[in-house]
Please model this.
Amino acid sequence: MSRYFTTPIYYVNDRPHIGHLYTTLVTDTLTRFHRLQGEDVRFLTGTDEHGQKIEKVAKKEGVAPIDVADRHAPTFRDLWKRFEVANDDFIRTTEPRHRVGVTELIRRLEAAGDLYVAGHEGWYCVGCEAFYPEKDLEDGKCPTHGTPPEWQKEENVFFRLSKYQEPLLALYEKGSVPGIPFVFPETRLNEVRSFVAAGLKDLSVSRTAIQWGIPFPGHPGHVVYVWLDALTNYLTALGLGSGDESLVSRYWPAGDERRVVHLVGKDILRFHAVYWPAFLMSAGLPLPTQVVSHGFWLKDARKMSKSVGNVVRPDALVDAFGVDALRWHLVSEMSFGQDASFSDEAFLVRYNSDLANGLGNTLSRAVRMAADAFGGKTPSERCDDNEVKRAAEAAVAAWDAAFRSCRLHEAAEAVRVLLGAIDGYITAKEPWKKVKAEGVTPALHRVHHNALEGLRVAACLLAPIAPGAAAEVLARLGAPKAAEAIGPSDLAWGGLPLGAPLAPAAPLFPRADAKAYFAEPSKEKPVTEETKPAAPAAAPIPPEAPAASPAPVPAPAATPAAPAETPRITVDDFFKADLRVAEIVAAEKVEKSKKLMKMTVRIGEEERTIVAGIATAYTGDQLVGRKVVVVANLLPAKLMGIESNGMVLAASLPGTGEPSLLAVDPSVPSGTKVK
Model:
């Protein structure tokens, strides 16, 4: 059986956030599960780099669109590496191989007689890169982003989408592979079916109002509509139109021996479940097996969105708790297909209950007691008929069924239940009492074997979700194996080696002190877009560094303060302030304020807004392009209704009190730490 799993390709107008990470981790987890079964699996992800949003960002920054794409695309690739995402390919839509494939697909649409040119006008959401009928707007705004759309009028190439209304309805009824619904879960299938049944209009598949995109073949001045461009990546990454389509033949034709599954958020379901299969039908290409749609991660009761500005970045939590902790939380916290709210409080509760107590404490107890009893080794006798074995076999069955039905949270629950059974078994058997009363008996060997073997099975079940933690557990149990090397036979009872060295070590997941965590001022909102300290990728800003109350600039003084009047501080106090070199990329005076200047500064790869009282000394034009020093780890403060995230350093000139920004050598890279 071959399987081809894909994520959406992510838009590169900004850095990745939790929503992107979740989709990718779900796909990675499913991929790892099926590889564990010994199946031939290919996993694709990548970045979407064309369209109006990129063009607008580039114009604002005064750079070429490809410069924006080149800056942000690596942040996705690097984050996936950090989270141990095991993708086989990473495609960028600016690659030549992608353009070749898009051109080939359009050639096929043209040959089918499904393209024509006509005038077009309507409400266009730049965030969605899509037109909306007025009836679908909510209070005149995009239903996804909550922003007003733009009225656009232009001549476009159109695709005869209406021609495929009935074939699409038949697809939703029967599926592309018998017995497998084309859209999962069922609620999403019903939504798509209702949308199509209400009637389809032909779809504009070119744009003339923008230039950043793939030129539309045969139509000078037109670029390919970003969704026709983006969706084709699933085939261009396999070599469509390249002259070598061996991967297309190996993975794409859906059927009894092949499965093609697209993992997407519900906001882009229509593009994948309506437009994409229609394009493929027109082109005479096989259809994917299934489009699997998950819910939204919510923050402040709203979908996380870069456009809205309520995104959560994964960096701070990972720095504090590790990759596997966040992988586990995201997979287990969301009931697949439904929305879920992200909060630090919920993360810490699950971390302590599931990982620190459920896995970490049970592992520590079992390994320590066995090591003490048997000279640092695993037991020399096994036991094949006991309650832990039965719990492990039930967990394996539940875990397998959950993965095959894409209920990933239930797969995590199967691991939780097994760990609870092992912990309860240890408590009930009281091996610490047995060894004191009876010494090292065969019965004691069997008790410890059951606990350790149950943990070994639990680690194998954990491998698709938290591969690093799974490998560490196996190493401590004297059964070292990489998560990627685990196979179906490892799920069977009896894999624990007898008399092998155990490896007691520090707690796998040390318990987190929630009170201390939230008492730290800088961690009140440690990972939100609005509060996370910016830093270059190579040197993230420590989240634990607090600072003084924010102010736009140091308070002006008529005369310099005498040294004797200045309170002395320790070097430790000084290093609490995280000072970074930043580049000002935009600046404008705040309306109705005489002193305040609103600036967009770039610190490494990140951008943030800082408001400073320097408008009396500088114009916006004088500031753009200038390197300054900022305090990067201040709590946010609102000034004239604008949230400021940081403080620029300036001197107060004697006599006037006018601010003078600290000078920085222009050659010093943005994001450099000031020591």
